[in-house]
Design brief:
This protein is of the alpha/beta class and 373 residues long. It has helices at residues 51-65, 79-85, 102-105, 139-152, 180-183, 194-205, 249-263, 287-291, 332-342, 354-358, and strands at residues 32-38, 69-74, 91-94, 108-111, 117-123, 156-162, 168-170, 175-179, 209-213, 230-234, 237-242, 273-278, 283-284, 307-308, 316-317, 321-326, 347-352, 368-371.
């Protein structure tokens, strides 16, 4: 049972809403003080005891650390291993979790015009709870936001909704983009309709305009997180994963999204410039990749031949670098060149990321930016 004070606010949480107090969520492309990650170790998510995934996470952490401080949270039993695998300038801290998706388990950071930092503590139910969730339990994940708030000494606003960080992107100027498939899913917030959800997003992120895309990438096990499909790269500009193969279910999804984006206006009344990123060729779990996993009844099965929701849009925007997944040799360099054109003042670093994708997400999913107030 959650401990509450006499006003019904969870212990250690701030009263009121962030918007009431003048806090808002800045864009990912705004300056950061740090990036937060978690260390993979779950054997039913990551094959062969997560050793291949740990190498990939370490490479992502090192690339981002060229740009900003990186914190990696680690369960106690993996602390020494992580500390020895990661270079000294990456900050390794004991921060227990059930799995390693900091974007979704971690806080959403907010800033205030007077230079203060705060966070939103969303309800987390492992992407669907007992109705389609990916594992059980998620008790350690639920404590991550509280622990980070304690470490940083910042206000923590507890939101009354199940929302993951990968389910939305903001432009920092009042606009948020998301998918109906995720935010209005019956396994998240069945009692909330679109208008109520928009009001809640204003209260906790201070966004004035929500652009609703119908659905996320094909077979995305997060129920359509927008960060695998579309993201802001600048005010009035988005990157959209794109498919030209009419036989691929992703073909229709991308065109549905494009139709909405081309008709939309952001909170400032601007039309959106849409930059298309090619999707990798369809990627499937190989026999040897599936055989290295523990088989548990409490977790999402990963079988040989299952298609993975690979996307180049799942990248991280740092202060001086953009870290993107390399997934398909036929398209990696083309995607990197497009991103380099969108971020001419940053160095675009491609990291081999199939091991991360095998776990169900990618580089944006395993990172969470801490903005500079």
């Amino acid at each position: 049972m959650t401990t509450h004070d006499h006003l019904g606010v969870p212990a250690g949480a701030s009263h009121g809403t962030p918007a009431e107090q003048g806090f808002a969520m800045p864009a990912e492309f705004a300056p950061h003080d740090a990036c937060w990650m978690l260390w993979p170790q779950r054997p039913d998510t990551w094959r062969y005891g997560a050793k291949p995934a740990q190498l990939a996470f370490a490479e992502v952490a090192c690339a981002i650390a060229e740009s900003e401080t990186v914190f990696v949270g680690v369960n106690d039993e993996q602390y020494e291993n992580a500390r020895n695998q990661l270079p000294d300038h990456i900050r390794v801290i004991e921060l227990s979790s059930n799995d390693a998706w900091m974007r979704d388990m971690g806080p959403t950071f907010l800033t205030h015009p007077d230079g203060r930092l705060a966070m939103v503590d969303w309800v987390f139910n492992a992407w669907g709870g007992l109705e389609g969730g990916l594992y059980f339990p998620w008790d350690k994940d639920k404590r991550i936001r509280t622990k980070i708030a304690e470490m940083l000494g910042i206000p923590r606003f507890v939101a009354p909704a199940v929302i993951e960080g990968g389910a939305f992107h903001v432009d920092g100027e009042g606009t948020l983009i998301t998918t109906e498939e995720c935010l209005l899913n019956a396994n998240r917030n069945p009692e909330l309709d679109r208008a109520t959800m928009e009001a809640l997003l204003w209260d906790y992120l201070r966004v004035e305009k929500v652009i609703w895309l119908p659905r996320g990438c094909h077979l995305d096990e997060t129920d359509g997180h927008v960060d695998n499909l579309c993201c802001f790269v600048a005010p009035g500009q988005v990157a959209l994963t794109w498919c030209d193969d009419e036989t691929d279910p992703q073909y229709t999804i991308t065109r549905e999204a494009l139709k909405v984006l081309e008709a939309a206006r952001d909170a400032r009344g601007r039309p959106l410039a849409v930059h298309k990123l090619p999707q990798p060729a369809p990627l499937y779990i190989a026999e040897d990749e599936a055989s290295g996993l523990d088989r548990l009844s409490s977790s999402h099965p990963r079988q040989p031949g299952d298609r993975m929701a690979g996307s180049y849009v799942n990248f991280y925007i740092g202060n001086s670098v953009v870290v993107m997944p390399f997934l398909d040799a036929a398209h990696d360099e083309q995607a990197r060149e497009i991103l380099q054109g969108l971020f001419p003042d940053k160095r675009v670093i491609g990291v081999p990321a199939r091991e991360i994708l095998l776990g169900g997400g990618n580089i944006h999913c395993i990172t969470q930016q801490q903005p500079r107030p």
